[in-house]
Amino acid sequence: LCLPPIRAALRCPQPRVLTVVRQPSGDFGFSLRRSALSDGLAGDDRRRTLMFAEPSTLGSGGGGTGLLPGDRLLEVNGASVDERTREEVVEMVRSSGDRVSLKVQPLPELCEIVARVAGGGPPGATQGRHRTLSRTGSRRHRTLGVSGRLPVLKSSERIEDGDPRSRRSAKTDEEIAEERQWLQSEKVWVLFDGGYAGASLVKGDQVTPREGRVRVRLDATGELLDVDQEDVDKVRSFIVFPKHTRCSQRHTNDVSVPVSPAPRLMLLLRTVTSSGISAKVPMTALCCSLQMQRVMRLLRDCPADDLPPHVFAVAQAAHAALVSTRRDQTVLFLGRSGAGKTGAAKQVLQYLAITVLFSSPSPEKLTAASALLESFGNSRTWANANASRFSQLFSLEFDIAGQLVSASVQALMLERWRVSGLRKGEPNFHIFHYLLAGVGDSLRRVLAFLDVCFVQRVTVPFVWLQPEERSKCALMWELVQGSLLTLGVRESEAKGLWSVLGAICHLGEAGTLRVWATSTGTSGRLQFQRGDSAQRAALLLGTSVEDLHRAVFAHEALLSAGGNSRLASRTGDSDPQEPLQDFVAALYMEVFGAVVSLVNRALGSAGRSVATVQVLDCPGFQSGKLATLEDLCHNYVQERLQLLFHQHTFLAQQERYQQEKVAVEEAEEVASPQGLVSLLDRIPPQGAALRASSCDLQQTDQSCGLLQLLDDEALYPGNTDDAFLDRLLRMGPANDGREQRLIHPGPREGQFVLHHQLGSLPVTYGVQGWLRAAREGPAFRQAQPLLQESHKEQLAQLFGCSRGPLASAGSTLSLDAGASSSLRRTPSIRRAQSVAAAKRRSLPLQVKYTTDGMLEVLRRTRLHFVHCLVPSMQPLEQGTGGAADDAHFDVPLVRSQLKGAQVLDAVRLRKQGFPENLQYTEFRRRYSLLASADCTPERGDERAAVEALLHHLDMEPSSYRLGLSQIFLRAGTLSQLEAQRDERLSEEVVRLQARARGFLARRRHQQRKVQAMALCCIQRNVRRFLEIRSWPWWRLFVKIAPVLNVHRTEEQLKSTLEEVGQLRAKLEKAEKERSELRQNHDLLEAK
Fold it and tell me: According to the annotation, is 337 in a ligand binding site?
């Protein structure tokens, strides 16, 4: 048996020759840009400098030029530009006269977008197109005819761009016969240990294999084999066509998916269910930020069915759902470490910030916030050069109009022990390397770095960086400085951060040692090994050496005051570096919390929000080298997210069917991650017996999980890692008995193996140092008060605004006043921390309860899952950087990820069931306009009205099911109804516009008629005046008219005087009567 070759990538559209006319402004309406990136057309990873010709605007047809973002310039007026500089190409364009001929070709990563916008037509066909993409389904329906069926090819064929079959409206008899012959051959995949092989089923009377086995003929050699029926999978019909989903494929399985599309074009295996599921493989060549911004604006306001298979489609779907339902949305990224989850999350944030008009905060602030958090929270691992070491939950607040008004970020479960040097062989966080490589002379003098050669007795050393990596770190330091400036961080606040980081470096150089008492031979007190380094750290922290010593070694004073000699003797045998490691980790936790607070202050605003789009990015599954406790915590979080995906996709849908009493085809049972999750976080019942001493090992073995067991063991200083491992391996199985297959001893002593992702990812863990890392020493709680009481005003102000008493617990959570409105939807995370972190101070329980609170927040939102896949896994030491190209596409690795992520199971469930559902009232409200006026259902029984509407629409009965209160539709049916509704609405809008235009035209016509009549009257009077102006009698009249007016004035004056005289007489008479009445009144009063 042998593996079939991976199919070649779909070739880009043929180069387009465009003739661009010089515009009135003097230019040609496009810009030239040179960029160094991997040439996708060559199929290798060599960095080449390419020339791009992009439109200056994104209007119709790219400003009339026909250019699209990402078009690579090949020739100018027939001359190649490969070996020319940008100045030479600009001169060639300028000297072209009024017209210039350009030959362009899109990059492989953008050929899908170009094919949709340009339509794959002849050169120049894209000129004059509108920027909004039309519906692919409608275009295909109009192009291929009424049936809308695509031509089906053999697995060895594909439709090229110029193939007539791509534009034919019907199939020929030969094509139908060829398709029928291919279907009758029953092509299958035969699975074996090394992968899979293509074959055909052999049937007939003479073929009599044993029960449970089938006979196949291998395509490669023609050999006949009898194989198990379970090892045979159907081959789907292979069609290279820009499809949006894989749910319409004839046979979808984990064998057909890796072999059909080329890895370079596997941007997304969109399976878009009702919960918005996607699978993503990172691209080998990413476009620059400017080009991506152009692509984002190009895809804005496109219909959902027309969006190319990209993570931008998930972002737009989340925003559209938020606007339509006013419900919070969450985009979750799942997958292994190095799969590109952080990059995809940043693309979602950028897309939402760029495509939403009048957004606040700006995209530049979001980019600066992401860069700053990556510098402080990311590190280099064995398989990823920029691995996230914390979980971040970005919240984008939108108002009622769908505009971005505010943003915030929560940082959870930072890998705190990395800064203290407990992760042997792995470097520190990026910010330390940036600081030591790029700090200037003035800041270096302030931080006392001038004459110090850091050996780092506690923290991770700096010697692993190569000279070229030091230069990159210096450039990244400038990026950090620019990010702080963009976010509006004051210089005093930045200096406060650098002072604490410098103090951490000096504390790592100081080290600790234990002074032994020579007279008694017992252990003495702890002190700093190098007093000068401790003095520098105290100056940077704004405190004295005595206070610093008291804060770091506070546990000795506590033990002496309590008189616990037995515990003190046990502590004396421990590592003397532990107090300093705890204190250094706590200092960095405070710095990271302050950075998150500064970011939230810059991103927050006073705008009123209605709903939120949350983007969750957690560290992926950790595998490869010997995993540690922090890796177990990250894998536990991913398992919980995978369980959430399983419940939301499989269980919730089946429960909805049962509640609505909908009969569906019984689906195959899908494995659940609940067994491993229960093994990790099972909590003993309240009535269970508690452990009273280190000897009670068998009391809670049957009822607690790994995290609870580790917490119990960490409470007693005398316990060892080997005892914990022995108790872990002796834990009893759960009721279903699955845990026996999920955990077993490792290949060496002190190791065990857990099978993550439904058993497809075995991870070997080493328990050395787990009990030490699981508990917090007294020095861990001394960092926050020391910084708040610092003599330096900048430090006291920066860390004085406490983020709560739990700010320096195992998770970092920003709770400053400026971000209270943005974080009002996440009280459960803070409540979870108050339950676990404050009482037990244990890392395992902090992770568990923080994850519980986070999932409680996520369940209240609408979820959009994005599964990221790793094409191949290669260590960084081999110089590959963890990236993969076509030559290193690991098919078994991708298959195992598809199986563990349950992507194809979700596809099958969507294909067999009815994933789209609407309430009867909502369905009738939206689609009643598709019915004619005489067929409008009567109001009353909504189900009867919907049945009448469906009967009028002549829908296939197998495409829907009617429940008690909802209608369930097959995948794709709702999009077809939306397309018909959009078409009907367009007709109604056109009719309304015609009526409105007719009314306005008639009113303008009446106004024009009145104006024309008035104009005719004026013209007639002017003509009469021109005729009589030289007439003698007219002249005489003009001279006499003023005299006649004077006579009229005298008459008017005379009449006015008469009226005044009459009024005066009436007034005198009234006065006389008034005086008589007064006299009579006085006489009567006198009597």
Answer: yes
pLDDT of residue 615: 95
Cis peptide before 957 (omega within 30 of 0): no
- CA 73/CA 65 separation, integer angstroms: 13
Determine the Cα–Cα distance for residues 161 and 563; give it in Å rounded to an integer: 84
Domain residue ranges of the chain, discontinuous segments joined by +:
16-108, 179-234, 629-663+673-682+698-774, 914-971, 1044-1086
Is 340 annotated among the ligand-binding residues? Answer: yes
Q: Is 339 annotated as a binding residue?
A: yes
CATH architecture for residues 16-108: Roll (2.30)
3-state secondary structure 222-261: CCEEEEEHHHEEECCCCCCCCCCCCCCCCCCCCCHHHHCC
Which residue, among 772, 747, 871, 798, has the nearest Cα to 264 in the 3D structure? 871
What gap in Å lies between CA 642 and CA 334, rounded to an integer? 7
* Fold that domain 179-234 belongs to in CATH: SH3 type barrels. (2.30.30)
Domain at 914-971: CATH architecture = 2-Layer Sandwich (3.30)
Q: 335: annotated binding-site residue? A: yes
pLDDT value of residue 966:
92
- Cα 159 to Cα 162: distance, rounded to the nearest angstrom: 8
Question: What pLDDT score was predicted for residue 212?
Answer: 79
Q: Which of 783, 770, 415 has its CA nearest to residue 579? A: 783
Contacts of 895 (CB under 8 A, 6+ apart): 254, 255, 258
**Is 741 known to sit in a ligand binding site?**
no
How many CA within 13 A on the CB side of residue 337?
Answer: 32
Query: Would strands 195-201 and 187-192 be described as parallel, antiparallel, or unpaired?
Result: antiparallel
pLDDT in the model for residue 136: 36
pLDDT of residue 440: 85
- The beta strands (E) that lie in 134-194 are given as 187-192
Ranges of the chain whose pLDDT falls below 50:
8-9, 39-45, 58-62, 118-169, 238-246, 261-275, 281-288, 455, 457-458, 460-463, 559-571, 689-690, 692-694, 697-698, 734-740, 802-839, 878-887
Q: CB-based burial of residue 332 (10 Å sphere; 0-12 exposed, 13-18 middle, 19+ buried)?
A: buried
**CATH number for the domain running over 629-663+673-682+698-774:** 1.20.58.530
d(CA 78, CA 75): 5
Determine whether the annotation assigns residue 959 to a binding site.
no
Judge whether 336 is annotated as a binding position: yes
